[in-house]
Amino acid sequence: MHPTTLRIIELFHRSGNSQYGHEAVTQLQHALQAAWMGERDGADAALITAALLHDIGHLLHDLPDDAPDQGIDDRHEVLGEQWLTRHFGPEVVDPVRMHVDAKRYLCTAEADYLAKLSPPSVQSLHLQGGLMNAAEVEVFRAHPHFERAVRLRRWDDEAKDPALETPPIGHFARYIDEVAGQGVTA
Ligand SMILES: [Fe+2]
Questions:
Q1: Residue 178 alpha carbon to ligand 1 centre in Å
Q2: From ligand 1's centre to the CA of 133, what distance in Å?
Q3: Domain total in the chain
Q4: Is the residue at 184 inside a domain?
Q5: What pLDDT does residue 65 have?
Q6: How far, in Å, from the CA of 184 to the mean position of ligand 1?
Q7: pLDDT at site 179
Q8: Cα dist. 13→4, 8, 27, 65, 151 in Å?
């Protein structure tokens, strides 16, 4: 197993049992559900890895789970990007960095998307900048990983079901192994 894969499994074992904000699932359950949806949707190894790790920024900071209640945006997508850039290429890093903007995009582009979001996700949307203006939509759509970021976001928003069972994290190690070691300092 790649050393990065081992570190990720260790990080989830250490911090993955924390609650995913006010959602009914833990960080680990949320990550596994997102990755599993990606696998079932036929995503490649990089996008399944991105789905598993899209919220890793939440595991890397010391802010409380209810930071949004205090009006704090934890900027977890930026923390996640900084960490992931050391270990993975843009096929993994970009959809993670873009997953918050992908929510803003989907709520702007699809009239019914906002209604599908959980209340905590609506709360954080406002802290994250709310809907996009036309110029922001144009820039976002022009990004080479636009479609991957949007696919990841749809799994993210569904991966909050306390009753949904998934394979354990070891099942996804093969995908991380396939794409680890392609970061800028790896
Ligand atoms: Fe998420």
A1: 23
A2: 23
A3: 1
A4: no
A5: 66
A6: 25
A7: 96
A8: 14, 9, 10, 17, 26
